[in-house]
Amino acid sequence: MTYEKMFFIFFTKTMITIFFFLLCLGVSDGTRGISYEGRREGKWQFLLKSTGVVSMHMALTYKNTVIMFDQTGGGPSRYLLRKRFGGRRCSTRSRKDVVDSTCYAHSVEYDIRDNRVRPLWLDTDPWCSSGSFLSNGTLLQTGGGYGKGAKRVRFYRPCRKNQQCDWKQSKNDLTDERWYASTQTLSDDDRVIVVGGRTVFTYEFVPKMSHGEKSYNLPFLHQTNDKYAKGNNLYPFLHLSSDGNLFIFANRDSILLNPRQNKVIKTFPRIPGHGSRNYPSSGSSVLLPLDHRYNFQKVEVMVCGGAATGALRSAGKGKFIQGLRSCGRMVITGNKHKWDMEYMPQPRLLHNMLILPTNDILIINGATHGCAGYNNARNASLEPYLYNPNKRLGTRFTILKSTKIARMYHSSATLLPDGRVLIGGGNPHGRYTFHKVAYPTELRLQAFIPYYMNKRYHNFRPRNLTIESYGGGKIYGIVYEREFVVRFMVVKFGSINNNKIEFSAYAPPFTTHGLSMNQRMLKLRCKRMMKISGEWVSAVLEAPPSPHVAPAGYYLITVVNGGIPSMSEWIQFRHA
Ligand SMILES: *[C@@H]1O[C@H](CO)[C@@H](O)[C@H](O)[C@H]1NC(C)=O
Ligand SMILES: *[C@@H]1O[C@H](CO)[C@@H](O)[C@H](O)[C@H]1NC(C)=O
Ligand SMILES: *[C@@H]1O[C@H](CO)[C@@H](O)[C@H](O)[C@H]1NC(C)=O
């Protein structure tokens, strides 16, 4: 090899490294970039006149369907079946069948692309239950209702169109009845923890850690229980910290539990202010995005809204007290813990908190007065809020476009892979009630379309995303810490946000009662990035370091160009 040639190779290698390095920080084509000011309000899309079934619970699957379900004890829904669970026929001509609620669906599967629902069959009642996705994408649904449903474990294995997948009941029951319990996927492969429930001050694992294992007492649930207000600590907020420990928030207090040793290892300060945050006070909570720049070790929790002290009793007398306006943020890693408080534009309860691919928090649905429970809330919150966690205090909330449809008790919401947010449900009554009430049963399905889907950002929206293993080829799961490649097209590079192209991985939640169980957003590390040809860009990303940071399972990968996200694609993080 000649000296010139060697030099040339050295030179190109160095240049490529520098080139790659620069590009990972940001790609810019010199255009002026994106201006959003005053244009963040978004819009609403009407999808279906009726889902037939109240969407009290909602979960997006990796087959791009959304599972929705209600209680089975709420009488006939608006989705009449030809056959009952178990196969016996239902007749529209039989007066008995027409009022028999087993002749109606109580769960549906929504196909996002076709904008259609098909019925699913439930045997026992999953009313006010909890859910988590397993590493293979199967939904594990736990408890709900009272009586027969409360100890049940059900599976829903998502399928492609026309495969007619349905609910399956597990042979193994829970140890305790779990009504208004919460669940979180743990970092051990495919184990979830189910915490609390009405008058149940314990937690348990599914599957069990060992043969014959029962539930574990958790005095914290006793201590936070307000027995004169139906608990005020039900549906506790659970978040998996990136050290594998579990953050549990109930009423106004919170702890960190080591689930392997069954030991409370931290007690955090009480959140300031009055009122309560958990059911039936029904505020909401979110784990803020975990960032690779802190090696995912800065873990911060946010709690917003809830009901005032005495709200339940007052609602019983027809008086609806104003809810809480305050939000608290606290870093739960490290050893200094303090709630930093701030205020939403209006009081809010019964709302959802969803993390958008931009890493902003969307606060949507809910009411300003009263609390959870039948007919206990008034004054629907029709305007969503966008919360930017990184802005200066006092400038973080933006009020978005309002809807005309009230979504209060028993409503739900979830982010879709195309960037829209699906909104369903709402029913403050024990049965399907459409007339002579302040807030009728709500079966209409809507989507909220955030600003980033506006036409004016189309050229900034990365598109044609494909995910490949490093070295090429289609992949079936990405192993922790390994590199993988994301290829996409960008017409125009955004120069807002320091020219940044960012990458995120999102575990979609199981949502109900304002909770988004297992929701998790990770900002991934980009190792190298290059323009390949024309508008094509290729980026080498690093999978999260461990299942503590991201439990094994399906995640949505999104490329965010100067604040404008692509449509998302599914990948699976898995063990080697
Ligand atoms: C996923 O795992 C669960 C529990 O082991 C099992 O019941 C289910 O059938 C599996 N689903 C798929 C898609 O393999
Ligand atoms: C709540 O709604 C009622 C009736 O719809 C209205 O009279 C009242 O002004 C509202 N209160 C607030 C604080 O918005
Ligand atoms: C990119 O995706 C769009 C659909 O979103 C498709 O029409 C187009 O052909 C794709 N382009 C390439 C080069 O793959």
From TrEMBL:
Q: Which InterPro entries match?
A: Gal_Oxase/kelch_b-propeller, Gal_Oxidase_central_sf, Glyoxal_oxidase_N, GO-like_E_set, Ig-like_fold, Ig_E-set
Record's Pfam families?
A: Glyoxal_oxid_N, GO-like_E_set
* Glyoxal oxidase N-terminal domain residues: 56-452
What highest taxon heads this organism's lineage?
Eukaryota
Which residues does the UniProt record annotate as the domain Galactose oxidase-like Early set? 478-572
Record keywords, A-Z: Signal
Q: Does the keyword Zinc apply?
A: no
* Keyword Ubl conjugation listed: no
Q: What is this protein called?
A: Putative galactose oxidase
Q: Which organism is it from?
A: Lupinus albus (White lupine)
